[in-house]
Structure formats: structure tokens, C-alpha cells
Design goal:
This protein has 554 residues and is an alpha/beta fold. It has four domains: 165 residues, P-loop containing nucleotide triphosphate hydrolases (Rossmann fold), CATH 3.40.50.300; 76 residues; 165 residues, P-loop containing nucleotide triphosphate hydrolases (Rossmann fold, 3-Layer(aba) Sandwich), CATH 3.40.50; 111 residues, Helicase, Ruva Protein, domain 3 (Orthogonal Bundle). Helices cover 47% and strands 12% of the residues. The chain contains 26 helices and 15 strands. The strands form three sheets. A seven-stranded mixed beta sheet has the order 7-9-10-11-8-12-15. Helix 6 links the parallel strand 4 and strand 5.
Length: 554
């Protein structure tokens, strides 16, 4: 594997002169913290091997020898070689307290300037059995500023969890280690190609014409080991590195993390969404901002949009269709599923989800019914402040995020949305999705007929669209209600000797529907009142005019 640390440096000038990776920047921060005699560095990562490579380089830049300790092998060099003079003090299986006692003694004289990476250590700081280990760690932390320069001892604790025990929280500097960025993934891909090009003679030639970039993009969001495994799996199965094969592996990994849901995009994309022409035109235009030409022009990548409106009118469907139209992954962020009964775990899950999203890069993040996920923050929920913390985390992330993720959130209840969520900077635009107009109902019917294997011209779409009203043309159908009459009509036709569906079957199915516009008339009126002057209409003006011809008031 290519050594990814050979360009790491703690010199800020050197870092600014090169395309430094995120990990190299973190390594530079660690080197600076060592020079500043930070008492304890608490590094949050599951990638022990990768993090240690960079930490070792950071230690060298700060003139520290780097060694490790774990209960399985005791004190050892980074190569794994045991240290003869320390074996008696910290034999294999030794209590971590003995290791800390040895480190404290070395800081008082007789030891070289050393950075100790403590593996699997947090478990030894818990409960009554960990009291001695905790006290020794605190003593080292307090003594660190007074240690002589020649035999100063520094400590890095590797942990998959950012929860630092309260006893040492004042001494510890928490560092979240990032997942591999695009530069690191590219280096790993090039190393994989170099290793296998003699076995697969066409491999290097195949990774051209955009396939290399696609393979890199497909692996973003994976750890180094997961990326290597995905590339290897693709080579074994297909004898090449295929972006789709890597994406499938990423889908499994993201499912394992259980902080995000991977959704397969709708094959037909925005063509499956009937109507909403204003919204679809806006989305198509924003997709251009990710091109190289747009970046040179100075356009910023779009941040996202909020869809507010009547339930069943295409908000969630639009979110699923965007990923297909733009050719990027679709991830669903379920805020409710991230909540936990354990203190601090909910916040950790949210941060973990954001970390994965930032690492993935270009993707659509779908937050469905965001008002329900954040209800406790605005309605005084008795959840110990979890919803309030979640709201703060979401707002900060949406404002400050640097990645290319596009957030599309949907909401049905505008009264419970916090005002700070709606201001410019969090979303590029707020859209109001109303009941479909006549032209939109026709479009929805055609899209649904096509999705169910029927030709749109096999029935009288205009007649069926006009019939999707109730009670003297007062209550229009939602998009979901319009779509639902097609399978209902197909069932009726199939039950009648499996004949072909007719216009009358659709009219009969429409006649049985009690529209949401009637059962929730007051709620829809409030939504429309709120949207006036606050949100852009997703329906085109000329399409809205078609509804006015029917005599129905918008």
C-alpha cells in the first residue's frame, strides 16, 4: 500500500503550498499540540492502522519517538517489536495501570522523549476497577507541562467514541479523525492499479475516460480498509474496478453504520414526478453548478431546499427523483432513528451521520418530515434536551458544511418549524407544493400509467383528470390519490376476466375516493395562507391558470 504519510508536515507554509489531505492537516494539528504540551490527545477513529501512520509522522515532526501499548502485546515499537528494557515493567497482559506508572516514571528521568499511543484504553477507565488507571492518567496529564524537554512523555488515546470521561475531560483534546478524502482515495486507487496491472494487463488502460474519477467518487465515505476491500471485490468479480460495484459495497457499509439509509434512486428520475414545473426547472438548473465550467465561473454548489405542502403531493417523490436526475447517491437521514436512551449517544450518532455525509461528497440527503424529527425542540418535548441539541447540530451543520451534499427536507406542519431553520443560508429556497392542478393531474396520470406498463393514450386522460374532484368541484385530489386510482382500476379490470383497463374503470375508481382536501380542508387552508409571500410555488403559473378555468379557487 502506498505510504500516505510521506508528505505530512507540521509547517503551515508547506501545507498551504501542496494539496494537503484532511488527515495531513490533522497530523499537523497533532504535531503542534505536542509542541504545545497538550496533556492528552483523545483521537476518535475506528481506523487504528491509518490513524497511527499519521500520528507517527506527527510525532516525528515534533521530535518525539512514537510507541504503542495494548494489553495484548505490552509496550512496543510502531513496528510491533517489543522493547526489552520495558518487558519486565509492562509484560504481555499487563494492567494498563502498570503502563501508565512506567510512563510517569520515564517522565521523571531516564526515558527518551516519547509519544505513547494507547490502544483499547477507554474501557480501562470505567467504574471502580478503573479508578487507579484514571488517577494515574490524570497525574500524567497534570505533570505534562512540567516535564523536562528531553524526557517528556505524551499520550494519545485511540477510541471509536468521542465520549471522554468527566474526570479527564478538562485535560483531553478531542480530535475527530476524518474518513479518507478524495486525494487519499485516489492514492489508494492508483496503488491498487499499480499492484494489479501485471495480472490484469488492461486494467490501467480501462481506468480512463472518467472511469477513474467515478471509481474514486464511488468510494468516498468509506474507510481505507473498506475502500481497499471494495476495490478488491470488484477486481475479483469483474476483473476491473467498476464504480457501480464499489457503490454496492458502500451501500452495505453505510447500512452497517446505521446512521443513514441508502435509497436506490427512481429509475425514471424527474420524469416520474408529474407537474411541479417551477421546482423541476430550478433543480435542473442547480445541477449545472457542479460542472468544472461552473466552478471556474465562480458558482457555488447548491445547499438544498425545503419542500412544504399538502401531504401526498410529490414532496418525497421529488427527493427520490433528484438523485437519479443528478446521478449521485441518495441518503435518507432519519433524525428519529438516531435518538438513543443513553446520554450523549444521540448527539454522537448525529455527528457520525454528518461526518459520513461530508466524506461521501456529492450526494442528496433526504430529511423526511423534518418538523416531526425536531418537534421536541419547539414544543417543549420531555426528552432531556435531545431534540434541542439535534436542532442546534442540524442548523450549525447546514450553515457551515463544506461538502457537496444537497439537503432536501420535507414538511407538512409549518407551524412547528423553528424560524431559524427557514432563513436564507440554511436552504437555497423554500417551496410550497399545493394540490395538483388539472395539467398536473394529467401529467401524474400519464406517469403512473407508464410506470404500470400502460400507454398513456390508451385511456382518456383529460376526462379522468377532470373527474378527480369532489362536491361540485371544490376538493381536488392529491397526487398520491390520483396515482392510486390506476392500480385500483387495474384490479377491477383483472377481476373482470383480466380484460384491459378502460377509462370507465378509472372513473369508477376515482368515484370511491374521499379526498384529503375535504377531510383536511382547514389544514390545507392554513398551509396556503402561510405559503403566501413565504415560499415559492412549485407549480408553474401557466399550469395554475388551467385550474382557474375549472372555477376552483386556488
Amino acid at each position: 500500500m502506498t505510504d500516505l504519510t510521506n508528505t505530512a508536515t507540521s509547517d503551515p507554509v508547506a501545507l498551504s503550498a501542496q494539496a494537503a489531505t484532511k488527515s495531513q492537516l490533522i497530523a499537523a494539528d497533532i504535531a503542534a499540540a505536542l509542541r504545545a504540551r497538550a496533556p492528552v490527545l483523545w483521537v476518535v477513529t475506528k481506523e487504528e492502522t491509518r490513524a497511527e501512520r499519521y500520528i507517527m509522522q506527527a510525532a516525528a515532526n515534533a521530535a518525539y519517538t512514537c510507541r504503542t501499548f495494548d494489553v495484548a502485546q505490552g509496550a512496543a515499537e510502531m513496528s510491533g517489536k517489543l522493547l526489552p528494557d520495558l518487558v519486565q515493567l509492562t509484560p504481555i497482559g499487563a494492567d494498563p495501570g502498570e503502563a501508565l506508572q512506567m510512563i510517569l516514571q520515564r517522565s521523571q528521568g531516564g526515558g527518551d522523549r516519547c509519544l505513547w499511543i494507547l490502544r483499547d484504553f477507554p474501557i480501562w477507565l470505567q467504574g471502580q476497577p478503573g479508578a487507579r488507571v484514571m488517577r494515574l492518567l490524570r497525574n500524567i496529564a497534570k505533570a505534562r507541562p512540567r516535564m523536562a524537554q528531553d524526557n517528556a512523555q505524551a499520550i494519545v488515546i485511540l477510541s471509536p467514541d468521542s465520549k471522554v470521561p468527566d474526570e479527564i475531560s478538562g485535560h483531553a483534546t478531542v480530535i475527530d479523525w476524518p474518513l479518507p478524502d478524495r486525494v487519499e482515495i485516489a492514492m489508494l486507487l492508483d496503488s491498487t492499479i499499480e499492484t494489479n496491472k501485471n495480472k490484469l494487463t488492461n486494467l490501467e488502460a480501462e481506468m480512463t475516460n472518467g472511469r477513474r474519477d467515478a471509481a474514486i467518487d464511488a468510494a468516498l465515505g468509506l474507510s481505507e480498509e473498506e475502500t481497499a476491500a471494495a476495490y478488491s471485490t470488484s477486481l475479483v468479480k469483474l476483473r476491473t474496478i467498476d464504480a457501480l460495484a464499489v457503490a454496492k459495497e458502500k451501500k452495505r457499509v453505510i447500512a452497517k453504520e446505521r446512521v443513514l439509509e441508502w435509497h436506490d434512486p427512481i429509475p425514471s428520475g424527474l420524469d416520474s414526478v408529474g407537474g411541479l414545473e417551477n421546482l423541476k426547472s430550478w433543480l435542473v438548473a442547480r445541477a449545472l453548478a457542479w460542472s468544472d465550467k461552473a466552478r471556474k465561473y465562480g458558482l457555488q454548489a447548491p445547499k438544498g431546499c425545503l419542500l412544504v405542502g399538502v401531504p401526498g403531493c410529490g414532496k418525497s417523490l421529488t427527493a427520490k427523483a433528484i438523485a437519479t436526475a443528478w446521478g449521485i447517491p441518495l441518503l435518507r437521514l432519519d433524525m428519529g432513528a438516531l435518538k438513543s436512551k443513553f446520554v450523549g449517544e444521540s448527539e454522537a450518532n448525529i455527528r457520525k451521520a454528518f461526518k459520513v455525509i461530508e466524506a461521501i461528497g456529492r450526494c442528496v440527503v433526504w430529511i423526511d418530515e423534518i418538523e416531526k424529527a425536531l418537534a421536541g425542540a419547539t414544543q417543549g418535548g420531555a426528552d432531556g434536551g435531545v431534540s434541542t441539541d439535534a436542532l442546534g447540530s442540524v442548523l450549525t451543520w447546514m450553515q457551515e458544511r463544506q461538502g457537496e451534499s444537497f439537503v432536501i427536507a420535507t414538511a407538512n406542519e409549518v407551524e412547528s418549524l423553528p424560524p431559524e431553520l427557514l432563513r436564507k443560508g440554511r436552504f437555497d429556497e423554500v417551496w410550497f407544493v399545493d394540490l395538483p392542478t388539472v395539467a398536473e393531474r394529467k401529467s401524474i396520470l400519464r406517469a403512473t400509467l407508464k410506470a404500470n406498463g400502460r400507454k398513456p393514450d390508451s385511456v382518456n386522460v383529460e376526462q379522468v383528470a377532470a373527474a378527480c374532484f369532489r362536491d361540485s368541484m371544490q376538493y381536488g385530489f392529491t397526487g398520491a390519490e390520483v396515482s392510486a386510482i390506476v392500480p385500483d382500476a387495474m384490479f377491477a379490470a383483472f377481476a373482470d376476466n383480466a380484460r384491459e383497463m378502460t377509462t370507465q374503470d378509472l372513473l369508477n375508481a376515482a368515484a370511491t375516493v374521499v379526498p384529503l382536501a375535504k377531510t383536511a380542508n382547514e389544514k390545507i387552508a392554513r398551509l396556503r395562507q402561510w405559503a403566501t409571500g413565504r415560499a415559492r410555488p412549485a407549480t408553474a403559473v401557466e399550469t395554475a391558470a388551467a385550474l382557474e378555468l375549472t372555477g376552483v379557487e386556488l
